[in-house]
Design goal:
It contains 11 helices and 25 strands. It starts with about 25 loop residues before the first strand and ends in a 5-residue tail after the last strand. The strands form 7 sheets. Strands 5, 6, 7, 12, 13, 15, 16 and 21 form an 8-stranded mixed sheet that branches. By secondary structure, the protein is α+β, with helices and mostly antiparallel strands. The chain folds into 2 domains: about 90 residues, Fumarylacetoacetase, N-terminal domain (SH3 type barrels), CATH 2.30.30; about 290 residues, Fumarylacetoacetate hydrolase, domain 2, CATH 3.90.850.
Length: about 425
């Protein structure tokens, strides 16, 4: 049973205006406190230490459940996160005096975000990247197959995806080192080896799964929502020149496996529930196993900014919306399991690059610079960019706008470092 915080609800914790983390959100993350891991719930610029809250009897659960999200759900079941969020809401509501009026308890349970560095929120066993942004797929088709239809014949029939590399998923703030690899210039007979010259970002959302399925047992689409834990921002970094040479016939490999950055706060589906919207008209209608009984898209505003090493302030280079996804979260996951593939708790699924229909809404530099032919200009310094350079900091953010509040995903950011020497 979903729990949607009333839009008029307020917390006794001071939440800055336009914060991504009002009481209507309450996302989950993981930190180290006193050399031990603890699950936290974010509100404004503070963290509610749920392990300490359980120890003090402020919430009902055993404190040992909150050493990580895996343990919480393994012991408490797939609805444990929703239950914990409901309890956190009760503690943080402005009319609840238990922690509000007890200074010692408040100082023990409520932590400043400035004092802690969030970790990856959970161990990621598998990572899958879809290709569900139809405008991005169309732009790529126009660039690389100008004499053909932009979309391949299967695009509107099934969610295209590939298995990525879970071991290279990193948390926001971790640097990204420019990858080495083979590239082949158009006029050369032989490939060359070296650092990518076309390092790019991909603006995506990611979602985590909340429970396992058995091998050989497809997951009916009407049940898929019960298997989605929550959403993060995701940047699936790409080396375009390496990718062009290696991807035929089997698809991305080294060009995509070197790093994938995610934001640290898992925003629950309960928090996103008020922002459901219909997706684009799917034509032809999808096959029955991909037909969801509920609308499954979300009105999430998304932005990307760049700050070069010479700039004092970042510059927003694109703005778009998650409504531009062709295939929804539930359609992606239903398709993943239809052949009997088992999913496991903590698997990470990415949507694919989310682009709008206009140049200022594209979700990658490949599109924004149109394959390097239309450089972007940094207004502060006059620098231009077709792809990312060493020292550039790339930041993504996103939020749902409510009536007087935002439910946000925070940020995912990384600075580009030079390639390793061999």
């Amino acid at each position: 049973m979903s729990f949607v915080v009333p839009s008029q609800a307020k917390s006794w914790v001071n939440v800055p205006e336009n914060s991504h983390f009002p009481i209507q959100n309450l996302p989950f993350g993981l930190i180290i406190r006193d050399e031990e891991p603890t699950v936290v719930c974010r509100i404004g610029d503070h963290l509610l230490d749920l392990r300490a809250a359980a120890r003090e009897g402020v919430i009902e659960d055993d404190e040992d459940l909150y050493i990580d999200i895996e343990t919480l759900i393994d012991e408490g079941g797939p609805t444990a996160l929703s239950s914990s969020r409901r309890q956190a809401y009760g503690v943080l509501l402005e009319t609840t005096p238990t922690v509000r009026d007890d200074k010692k308890l408040r100082e023990s349970l409520l932590l400043s975000i400035d004092d802690y560095t969030p970790l990856l929120p959970m161990h990621i066993g598998a990572f899958v990247d879809f290709y569900s942004g139809i405008n991005h797929a169309s732009n790529v088709g126009r660039m690389f197959r100008p004499d053909q239809a932009p979309l391949l014949p299967n695009y509107r029939q099934l969610p295209v995806g590939y298995n990525g590399r879970a071991s290279s998923v990193i948390i926001s703030g971790d640097p990204v080192r420019r990858p080495n690899g083979q590239q082949k210039l158009p006029d050369d007979d032989q490939p060359i080896f070296g650092p990518t010259k076309e390092l790019d970002f991909e603006l995506e959302l990611g979602f985590f799964t909340s429970q396992d399925t058995d091998i050989g047992v497809p997951l009916p689409i009407k049940n898929v929502e019960d298997y989605i834990l929550g959403v993060v921002l995701l940047n699936d970094w790409s080396a375009r020149d390496i990718q062009r040479w290696e991807y035929q016939p089997l698809g991305p490999f080294l060009a995509k496996s070197f790093a994938t950055s995610i934001s640290p706060w898992i925003v629950t589906m309960d928090a996103l529930e008020p922002f459901r919207i219909p997706g684009p008209q799917q034509e032809p209608p999808p096959l029955a196993y991909l037909q969801s009984p509920k609308i499954g898209h979300y009105n999430i505003h998304l932005e990307v900014s760049i700050k070069t090493s010479k700039m004092t302030e970042p510059q927003v280079i694109t703005q778009t919306n998650a409504s531009n996804l062709y295939w929804s979260f539930v359609q992606q996951l239903a398709h993943q399991t239809v052949n009997g593939t088992p999913i496991e708790f903590g698997d990470l699924y990415a949507t694919g690059t989310i682009s709008g229909t206009e140049p200022g809404s594209y979700g990658s530099l490949l599109e924004l610079s149109w394959k390097g032919t239309q450089p972007l200009t940094m207004e502060e310094t006059g620098e231009t960019r077709t792809f990312l350079e060493d020292g550039d900091t790339l930041t993504m953010t996103g939020w749902c706008q409510g009536a007087g509040f935002r439910v946000g995903l925070g940020e995912v950011t990384a600075t580009i470092e030079s390639a390793p020497m061999l």
